[in-house]
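Hey, resending since the last one bounced:
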Amino acid sequence: MAPDPNAIGAFVFDAYGTLFDVASAARGCTEALGAQTAARLTSLWRDKQLQYSWLRAVQGRHADFWQVTGEALDFALDALELAQNGLRERLMQLYLRLDPYREVPAVLERLRAAGHTTAILSNGSPAMLAAALDHAGLRAQFDHVLSVEEVGVFKPHPRVYRLACDRLGLQAGAILFVSSNGWDAWAASAFGMRALWCNRSGSAAERLPGTPEAQIRTLGELPMPAAGGAAEPGR
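The structure tokens again:
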């Protein structure tokens, strides 16, 4: 059952894959790569980006997400034998200007109009998040933009979810955390947050501690307050 939005103290969103389409970077180079190669690059780049963040967290060897993103891209370009001049720099710059998913602006506008507190909790560095928000014109839609750089470790370390509680001044159970990454939603739930999984890719459920309260396919299905304060599904 989807949570009642009027019982939530704050809506906290993951950024990459949830608000911003990580595939849009390689898609911006389709004319150079071809559609099939761009899709393969996106998948490998994202997989390595996440793997490197988890491995650095386990090893206690933190580097900011910009460095990790570049190292993951280097691996993907090498693995796919892509060596075009200027391609790496172009892709990295496109990563700073990722497209928001189509429904995101309207969903955030409705939450803000209803008076809800909104925040981002992301692996992204402050500079990366600022660039993405400025490009999408969404900065004004958030009360807080929280980066793991404040705690020096990547998700799913519990310190990351604690950061949101501390900065928002809320208990974990008063926060609805929304992520398209199943492992992230499960970890937030295990921490004690109310978690909602935006399962954009139709993935199977994780076998990890925690259980999200509900699953949606896009943020357009996020429970929204209706006129007068009642809740209804978002459109």
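DSSP finds nine helices and ten strands in the chain.

Sorry for the duplicate.
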